Each structure stands twice: as C-alpha cells, then as structure tokens.
Amino acid sequence: MTKLSNAFYAQSGGVTAVINASAAGVIETARKNQNKIGKIYAGKNGIIGALTEDLIDTSKESATAIAALKHTPAGAFGSCRYKLKTLNENRAEYERLIAVFKAHNIGYFFYNGGGDSADTCLKVSKISKELGFPIQAIHIPKTVDNDLPITDCCPGFGSVAKYVAVSMKEASFDVASMAKTSTKVFILEVMGRHAGWIAAAGGLASTKDSPLPLVILFPEITFNRKKFIKKVQEKVKKFGYCSIVVSEGVKGSNGQFLSDQGLKDAFGHAQLGGVAPVIANLIKEDLGFKYHWSVADYLQRAARHIASQVDVDQAYALGASAVKLAIEGQNAVMPTIERISDHPYKWKLGTARLSRVANIEKKMPKKFISIDGFGITPSCERYLKPLIKGEAYPPYKDGLPKYVTLKNKSVKKKLSNNFKI
Amino acid sequence: MTKLSNAFYAQSGGVTAVINASAAGVIETARKNQNKIGKIYAGKNGIIGALTEDLIDTSKESATAIAALKHTPAGAFGSCRYKLKTLNENRAEYERLIAVFKAHNIGYFFYNGGGDSADTCLKVSKISKELGFPIQAIHIPKTVDNDLPITDCCPGFGSVAKYVAVSMKEASFDVASMAKTSTKVFILEVMGRHAGWIAAAGGLASTKDSPLPLVILFPEITFNRKKFIKKVQEKVKKFGYCSIVVSEGVKGSNGQFLSDQGLKDAFGHAQLGGVAPVIANLIKEDLGFKYHWSVADYLQRAARHIASQVDVDQAYALGASAVKLAIEGQNAVMPTIERISDHPYKWKLGTARLSRVANIEKKMPKKFISIDGFGITPSCERYLKPLIKGEAYPPYKDGLPKYVTLKNKSVKKKLSNNFKI
C-alpha cells in the first residue's frame, strides 16, 4: 500500500470576505476523503510558505475552527503578492518547490487567487511534465475584481458588490435627508483599477421601488468634466441631491489616473490621495454644492458582516470542487461557476483549462454601461442582481462578529537549507 | 369637548441609523393615545418645515410604513441644519412659529436632535411663557457624537460605534493577511470633530479572544508625530502590522486640524482632504511601510444594516417617552437613558431639564484614554461594550435592505403669507 499524497493549499493576492470559505471547502472535502488524499498543508503567506518551507498543518485545527472559516474574512493562513518567474528565468525557485514538495510528500497544489495566481498555478502544473515531478495543480478562483475569464463570476466579488450596493443605498438616504440646507452630493470611492465591476454594483442601490439619483464613474469611460458636472446638476435639480460612485481607476483624457493629481502638502511633499476628494473638489468648484466623500478601501472587501450568501456558497463549492478535481486526477484546471438562469438564479460548477485563464482579464461588456456612460444597463442589472442575494451573517458575541483565528501550527521543517525570497 | 391638540415632530442636524426609530416611537405612541393627543405633523426638513408651513401628515402613513421606520436609516421627513436665533434677535421667527402652530392647532413640539437642537427646543419651550402661546416642547436626544449631557448615551452613537468596531476588526484581519509582502498599516478615519467617542469605539475591535494591534488618534490628544510613529513601529514589529483609527478632529501642536494641510493640486487650487491620507503620508515618509486608508464618512452613521439592537431599542423608547412626557404635561424636558449596570447591561428611562442640556457638550472623560494616549482604558471598554450589543438586522429583498420611503403627504397650508428662511 502506497502512502497517500499530501496537498498544499495557499491563498494569494488581495484577500476577500469569502476566500476562507474556499479554504473550508478544500479542507472539509479533503477530510471526507481521507482514503484518497493525505494531509492538507497550508502555505504560510501564500506560495512564499512553500518556498521557505513554512507549512501549516491544518489537521491540527478542530472541525469547529475549520467550519468557522466559512464566516471569517481575509486570509486565515496569510496571503502574498508574489508571482513565480518562468522556468527559464528562475529555475532555482522550481527546484526549491520540488524539494519542499518531495520532503513533505505533496502531490496536490491548490492555489486560491486571481489572474496572477492562475499564472503561477499554471507554471507549477508544468513541473510535472518539464521537471518530471508528479504534481497536480488546481486553481481556485478568487478576486473582488471579478475579472477572471470563463467563470461567470469570481468569489469575493458578490460580497463587495453587496457591500457597495447597501452602502450606496444607506448613504443616499442620508444625503437625501440633509440636502435641503446642507450636503447635496455624496461620493463613494470603490476599488477596481482596471474594470468597473465594483462601481457597477453601486448601481444596484437604485431599484424600481426606491429609485435613487446615482451617477457612476467607470474606469472604462474617459472622464469628461463638463458632461459629468452637467449630469450631477441634472440629478440635484430633479431629486435635490446626487450620489456618486467613483472607481479608483477613473482616468482623464490624458490617460492619467484622476487620483494622481500631483498633490503637494504645505511642505511641498507629494501627497497620495484618493479620487473621491478630487471629484469632490470639482463639485465644489463648478457647482458650489456642499459634499461629503468616503473611501471604502479595505472595508469593502473585508466586510464579511454583510457578505452575500450566494458568494459564500460559491466560494465554498469551488474549494470543494478543487479537491474533487484533484482526486479525479486533473491537473492545470480551475473549477468555475456556470450560470444556468438569471431569474430564478441557478448555477452549477464547471471546469476551465488554466491555459485559458492565466493572464487573461475579463473586461466588463460595453453593453453593461448605459449610453450616457454614467449608469448600468438592464442587462448589467440582470447579471449583478443574483450575486448579492442572501445575507450570510456571521455569529456574534458581545456585539462583534466571532471570527476565527486558527492555531496555525507549523509543520516541522525537513530541509536543512533556507531559501531567500 | 375641546379639540385635542396636534403635535409637531421634526428631525434636526446630522441624521443617524436610528433617528427614524425615535420617530416611530413618537408616532406609534401617539396613535395609541388618540384620546389624549391629536395628529402628528412632521416638519418637512426639520424646523424649516414649521417656519415655511411645510407640514407632513403622518396619519396618512400605514401602520406598516411607520413600523418600517424602526429599520430605516436617515431622516424620513428630511432634516436641517438651522438654529433659531434668540427671541430678541429674531422675534419674527417666533411669531411665525406661533402663527403656524395656531393655524394647525399644535400644542406639542417634539424636536429630535443634538446639542444645537436642544437649544432650539429650549427656545421654543419659552414661547409659552414669553409670548403667551401654550406649547409643550420636548427634546428627543439624537447624535452620533454622543456628546449630550445627563443622558448616559445618545441614540445613533451605539450603531456608529458598532460599525466602527466591526469595520476595524474586519480591516485588521485583512491587513494581517497582507502584511508579509504588502500592506502593513491600515488607517480608518472616523467622525468626531470635538470628542473622541467614535474613535474610542474602534478600540472595541480588539478583544481578549482576538487581540489586535490598534492605535487610536483622539481629538482630545494633541498629535505628536514622533510618539505616534514610534507606537506604530512597535506594533508592526510585534504583530507584523498595525491598524489605526483616526478621528477627523485630530489637531497638531499648532492647534490646527491635521486634515487642514493646505493641500494644492497641480493647478494650485486648494484641495480638501481627510486626515487619513495625511497620516498615511507620515507613515510612508517616516517608516516606508505600504499602507491603505479608508474614510468612513456618511457610511458609518447611515449603516442601518449593522445597527446595534440596544441603540435601536433606546431610540424607540426615547421617542415613546417624549410622547408620554407630553401627555403628563411636561415642558422643556428631554427623556434620557440612565444606566443601572454595565454587566449585565441594564438601563431605564429618565428625564432632564432642557436648561441643563442645551449648549453643554459632554466630553469624553480623561480616564477613558490610556496613559500613552493611543488606546482606551478598561473603564472606557465597560462603558462602550453594552452600547454595541445585539444585531438589529433590517429585512431584505433581493439582497438589499427594505428601507421605507414614506408618502410624506403635505398638510394643506392655512396661512396666506410665505416665510423666507
């Protein structure tokens, strides 16, 4: 009887409200298949943990702790921003990976991340062929940017979308109350440097039952001050106030980020600002309205307290599916979400070849942005609406969510040499 | 049989996640006492509605709609920032109020607001004596700033406190995941220009079960760059990362707001920024750490989706109490929250004379700030903890909270002349 292969699981890139739900899907499914798969070792801080042999033994965690990952945001094992070079560029990295995998009898590589991570995962999948070491690499999709191809949506996005839609609704109610004598314009800056998926989600705040005067600034649309100001003026005239969602990635006609305004403080030092205060300043200069602005930043992607149930379910299912694909003997694949219908929302799991995923960015379709460039279309709404469905509340204690912090017990190192990142 | 007097209710100043719960308390209690109190007319946009005779007939709203106010943030009737002058300074305003009250048979004045509103309410309460018009003025406390005297806490604050504590916990989990190769410092800017109550609530994010490396910047403590940077450096050294809560009201040793940095854009225009990016810049300059920053702004006070149950209950109870005090014949008073015990948390309603409330700001006690000036003390924690208890979730439809928008039917005007604000 041969010894079962262990698995390596790591979280990569910007974390989300539901990436730990994928981790729970991986670990719980592996635990149910102990006759087919050995231990799950998690990389401490992503793939860096594999390179430095900093492995975490997830078998030391209780079933309760692993289940609690389903309602705990961020990366329970630590994440990293680190992209493997090609085999030609840095052969030593691959040899080190093989040394660590061999030392710990690792035959499965589960990598939980976005576009860059899919590329890393694809590179690892090739070790098998190119360096003759048997490893199956499976990528588990995760990105608030929602920009991975093939899969209908990416875990992490639905919860950010819900956060942004709920926040815009709430802030719009607030500014509507204040508009008579005070604030008339509210601006929320959201993530999305290259694609407007998150900004688009702000559009969901306005519904047929409760229409709101929203203006959305997408990174896909070159900012035009005159048109924008005119649009805001129209909204304030009609509704008494206006709510603006602005993507951090909005650019001017010079191709530069609007947030990159060359701000200097009193001492002449460069000041890094967001785009929200820049927009606020334009409102003040051109319209004279009182404004308020907010920058959601990490709050939006960490907001497990208002996570979408659909998002949590899909994140978990994709983690579970990765283990099943591994057991089936697959390599260089990524489980995906396939949409069956919008309403009622139905989805199933699919599979994509990693070669068709890595380094390909899914842009928001043009038909999702309204003709004036400041709103979303009905087809965009149909796409987005199901993704924010359901409230997956975490348990609370004393008024705070009960998020788990794992013990993260280290696996004893077996290699004598260190590896420098 | 004399005709029952009607009541005027208005919302004032910055709105909150639970001010509408107070409105529900007023209206539902009045409806239960229809043999003692007539109609409840709400001021459109606060007291301005009384001056311009823009009254809303709340009797046109269904019981369901009024009940839904309990879970709807912001001001359902509109609010305003408007302080009545003294009788000597603007007698015309008071004469106008009397004319409107007389025309609509208004004998009760319920004013729902903070310190400025308490002052306005006190002035109205004097009409009775000084101008001989019978009116009972009752103030209903509301302010996220938690700075009204006598009452143990102010409705609106508990929910902001919960939002800030939950958000800091979530963002801290996020930055902890990223710290190895990326962001090491996260900064959240919160409200509180004069008092650090809201910033202090960030301290609740760190618990015995789940300690977090928090640094709090209070408006009560003069900012000292060297000490601050040292503190952040210590936290990063020990925990690998650091989370900072900064109050918008933090000032430097020159007495100026830190946010007021004389920023200029590329064209030399003044740029209004928050304090979070200023703090971020100091981190970059002195420590070189990668950072992220967020400005919560309206999101924090509008976040009904994560409101505290204690806060909602108290807001409602204070609205209900105001009506009972009116029926008892009281004038120039404000119902208050009296704390009986911290743990288990017990509270009851009390009453304060408005003359002891108006224009008095309750500062945060010195003993609530730790000796180093960057954290909260155990006594502060004991005070704050009960206020964020319980999750008063709103109902949802299609992934979004079902907030109510009232019909807000106008009462027919009876006066022929208009009044200019």
Helix content of chain A: 25-40%
Question: What is the CATH architecture term of the largest domain in chain A?
Answer: 3-Layer(aba) Sandwich
- Number of structural domains of chain A: 2
Calculate Rg of chain A over CA atoms: 23 Å
Taking the sheet with the most strands of chain A, its summary is:
5 strands, mixed
Structural class based on helices, strands and sheet pairing of chain A: alpha/beta
- Portion in beta strands of chain A: 15-25%
Poorly predicted runs of chain A: none
Tally of DSSP β-strands of chain A: 15
Main β-sheet, spatial strand arrangement of chain A:
3-2-1-4-5
Shape of chain A: elongated
Query: N-to-C SSE series of chain A?
Result: EHEHEHHEHHEHEHEHEEEHEHHEEHEE
Helical run tally of chain A: 13
CATH class of the largest domain in chain A: Alpha Beta
Q: How far apart lie the N and C ends of chain A? A: 38 Å
Q: At the third CATH level, what is the topology name of the largest domain in chain A? A: Rossmann fold
